[in-house]
# Entry
Amino acid sequence: MGRARVDDEVVRRVAARLDAGGVPNAAVDARLLVEHVVEVVGAAAGCGGSVLDGLVDRRLARVPLQQVLGRTWFRTLELTCAPGVFIPRPETEVVAGVAIAAAAAAGPAPRVLEPCTGSGAIACSIVAEVPGVQVVATDVDPAAVELARHNLARTTAGQADPDAPAAGATGEVRQGHLLDPIDPAWRGQVDVLVANPPYLPLADRTTWSPEVLHDPTAALAGGPDGHEVVDELLELAATWLRVGGTVIVEIDDRRGEEALTSATRAGLVSARLVQDLTGRDRAVVAQRAG
Ligand SMILES: C[S@@+](CC[C@H](N)C(=O)[O-])C[C@H]1O[C@@H](n2cnc3c(N)ncnc32)[C@H](O)[C@@H]1O
# Structure
């Protein structure tokens, strides 16, 4: 978020409204909303008026802050958010970081696959940070594919981050189930497969906050058990990676041991867990055996 100059009294008034309406972290959201209006619409609108009131009303209706603003921030990028597409989360920045390091270490023109791309956050950050990379992302949901293509176009045009893309980096987004849309010639040739797939059990839905209920259920729930897509991706990694290639899959922090077992069962080696910034198990990382 740009650090627009805002009137602290206006921020306090907005925070009081949000707090009275039961919105969590009201003070933080109030400042971001006022800064957004000043930055995008202008200082006069940020001092009150219908634009700010409209945004505050939407936040009071528990629309996620990122959907109210229409944008979010992920690693070095400012990304567009759209209704009906999963909002990227801060913990996924760590997952993307592991993929970026693996791709950067893989030599010139690394090949990276990112199924389940959503807004394209992971794919865009790899294109932004890894010189020479070729990224192909997929999503089954047409709305996600459209948004990911938009965010990728902004990244390659230098609009999401003035320093992006990295030299020679390219990306594209295809619609379909996991790796179905990928050129079969890439089978066994992929350096990095990274995904933040749906991984929660469907029954968890009753515990989700009003904001989380704005994300599509199919983006969050992997099935009745929750681990279905994680298991399928680890099995795909065992055939699509080149020997020594790396798979990184974001997981439910309650199911790290299970994810390690799934990786080993798929025939992958050197399986380990990566923690997010709160210390929770957040990804399983493994390699294709020689
Ligand atoms: C948890 S969201 C993650 C989005 C993005 N990778 C991120 O980290 O912000 C999961 C995404 O997977 C997509 N998805 C679910 N099942 C899929 C499948 N079988 N094949 C491809 N994409 C799928 C959903 O549409 C959703 O966009």
The mean pLDDT is 95. The chain is about 40% helix and 20% strand.
